[in-house]
Amino acid sequence: MSLNHGRDLTAMPGPSMIPDRVLRAMHRAAPDIYGEPLIGMTATVMADLKRLAGTAGAVAVYIGNGHAVWEASVANLFTPGDRVLVLSTGRFGLSWAETARRMGIAVEVMDFGFRAAADPARLEARLRADREGVPLKAVLTVQTDTASGVRNDVAALRAAIDAAGHPALFAVDCIASLGCEPFEMDALGVDVMLAACQKGLMTPPGIAFTFHGARAEAARIPCQSPYWDWGPRTAPEEYYQQFCGTAPTHHLFGLREALDMLLEEEGLGNAWRRHGVFARAIWAAVETWGGALELNIADPRLRSHAVTTIRTAPGLATRLRAWCAEAAGLTLGVGLCGPDQDRDSLFRIGHMGHLNPPTMLGALATIEAGLEALGAPRDAGALEAAARVIARAGDSLPKSPDGG
Q1: Using CA atoms, how far apart are residues 223 and 133, in angstroms rounded to an integer?
Q2: Which of 25, 149, 234, 325 is deepest in the core (most CB within 10 A)?
Q3: pTM over 0.90, yes/no
C-alpha cells in the first residue's frame, strides 16, 4: 500500500519547491512583448538581481540553465589558447572545466576531491609559481558544489589570489547557493558570478544569469556568438536585445514574485539565517542517526547551507530514495559523483528556497520512516535533535504580550 495520496514534497537540490504565489504569477496570458508594463517590470527585475548579488556591475539574463551560463562566461572572457585554473570540489567545477576545454581553452584543474573544500594555501602557491609564459587568465570555482555538498570559502580564495599578487580574474558559480548562502559579489572581490532561477530563487528552471564587474568588463573579448554576447544584453539599445529575441515573459513574472518574497518580505539576511538553521537541523539528524548514514563533509564550517550530501551503507541510498518517493511522496536528490564514488550509496537533501519547519521536519520524519521500513541500523533521537535546532532558533523570535 502506498501512503502517497497527498501533496508531494520535493527535497532535492533543484528544482526546488515552487511557491504557489510564483506559480500564480506565471499563470496568465502572454503579454505584449513591446509594451511598457513588461519593459518596466524587467527593469525592476534586473535591478533586484544586482541587489541580490551584491554588485554594482552588470547582469545578463539568458534563457537557459547553469550549463548555459558556464558557456556564456567562457564565450565573453576567453579565446582559444587562454589558460584558466579550475578549483574542483565535487562535480560541477569539473563540468565548467569541460565546457571551457571544449571551447578551446587550456584548462588546468586543481582537484580537491569529493570530501574537501578548495585549499587557499594551495591556490596561492600555484599562482606564485605562475611566472613564466602566458599567465593564467582566471580562477574558476563554485561556492557550493551540489554533488558533494561542500561550501568553498570564497573570501579566503580571493585573499589567496591577492596574496600571490596574481592578475587572474576570479569567477564563482553560485547556481546552487544564491539566496541561500551569504554572498556579496563586490565586497568579496569576485569578478564574475553565475546563477540560475531554479534553486534559491524558487522559480521553475529556464533562466540563468551572469554578473560581471569592472575588471571582467575590461578583460572582455569580442564575443563570436551573438547569443552569448554580454554587450547587447547588458547595454541594450532596444528591449529585445536583453534576451537576444523574445523575452522569457512568464519566467520574468515568476521571478519578480520570488524576488519580492526574498528581498522585500523576508529580507535577504533573514533568508540566509533561515537556510543556516535548516542545514544545522539536517546535520543534527544525520549525526544522531549514525549507523548506516554519514555526512559527506565532516567539517561543519565547510558544509553547504543549501544541500547536504549523505553517505550510506552500500546500496541503501537508492533503496531509501525509492521508498520515500513511492510510499510517501518525498523526492530526495540522487547521488551525483565521480568515478571513485558509489552513487547507490549517496543521496542528497536539498534545503533551499521555499522551506519552513513543517516541510523540513516532514522530510526528515519521512526519511526516518524509510530507514525503519528498510531495516537500516541507526540510533534513536534524530528528529528530536533536529527539532531542538529549530526550537533554539525560534527562541529569538518576538514573544506575544502575554508571554506566549
Answers
A1: 25
A2: 149
A3: yes
